[in-house]
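Sample log: Coatomer subunit delta.
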Amino acid sequence: MILGTLVTNIRNNQILARMKDPVYTEKIEFFLLEFMNSATKKSGLVYKDLYKYIYTFDEDNYYVLITSLLFNEIKGFSILTHLINSKGGDPLDLLIFIDNIIYEDNIVYPDLNLIFNMDSQEEKIYKMMMKNKELEMRRKQKEIIKNKSKGGNGSKLDLNKLNINSKLSINNDLTSKPTINNTYIRNDLPVDFKPKDKKRRFETSTSPIFICFKEKIKCVINQENKIKLMEVMGEMTLNIKEEDFNNLEIKLKGNYEDCKFSPKLNKKDTNCGIIKSEKGFSLNKNIALLKWRGCVDGGKGDGSKVEKGGSSKVNANGKPSLSNPHSNSNPYLSNTPPLEFTIWPSEIKLNTFQFTLEIIPNLDLENLLISIPKRKLREIKFENENEDNLEWKIDSISKGDSDSLEFQCKCEDPSDIFPIEIYFTSPGCYREIGIASIKMNGEDLKEKTDIKKMREVDEFTLESE
């Protein structure tokens, strides 16, 4: 009969033991010490007065059977061979196998590894069902995007009511994951959209004359919402759709003196804030007429703000520098980021964190997408995720409002959720610039002109430090 089993690692001295009858720990230590002092080979037998050890060695581990003197040795080595082949690298697997040896009359399962790795029938059905559901959602989402591009807008409500809610309810029932309100899920975003996708918006208008002031934002902040780098690159574009208006004249107002104008424009006119073309403007093209650039360097430490493209400088007290007469007395960049974050991790179990993410915008924001990398995260409980990221989507949020999100995951350190990437658009511009008049041959064309001001993120990163 088998009295017990021992598995010991000679490198780290870890021990796994199981005895047929209850014994004290001191007795198990006695068996182990006696065996280690008696074993002279990597495989063999050690006889004692009332019992014997049948043992073998594999990958730094001794596998030992303690048996009666009359126990069949060939059978003992066969059991040890099955034990080594079926261990699967998990001590729990070893215990299950050993228990079957000791308490089940030496029943050996040659395919024990296969049994451990098998999915239950219910798990397979669930995975198939969720996969089909995901494919169906992707198909319907593509249809909605296609319909919206053709002018259809009735399908979006159906998706919000039927598809997303049904998906959330299924996930809640089967996986008990926390949900996100469906207002956070934008259906007009591509399925594979990521915040770093560049130039994804191209502004258009149905008006015969379209003028767009657009600023692209590059920003890096830390957890304390301190700006490490913020850069704004702006431009004014003109798009004329009808030939009757290609000789128009635009008069600017506001802070345009330090902007760079297109070399195709007359410099004497641009010095006075007048934009016109002697040869006429091209049709059906977004023509860049002037550009500007500004930045806030968080590394300076003095709070100074710099405007480039003429380089006007504004001191930390908000007064214009005397070195440039065109410096703006109302500096268009501030030391506060467009969006502020509060990230609150709570370690609810060992290496398991509950994260609360709160946002407060300093601008009116639209199309907000916050993307958290999940390459270092495990066992994530979160509703809206793709292959690489956890995504929080908000259609619009007003300046000064707040919103929050919670999710749970396993990670080594809370900093594993960084860097977080952010994308948004926002109405208006930092720079105070506008149109005083649009005329052609004395005729006022403002009623036929669509003027738009907006900001868009080019790169916005939230870093841990």
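Observation: The longest strand covers residues 227-240.
Observation: The two ends are 64 Å apart (CA to CA).
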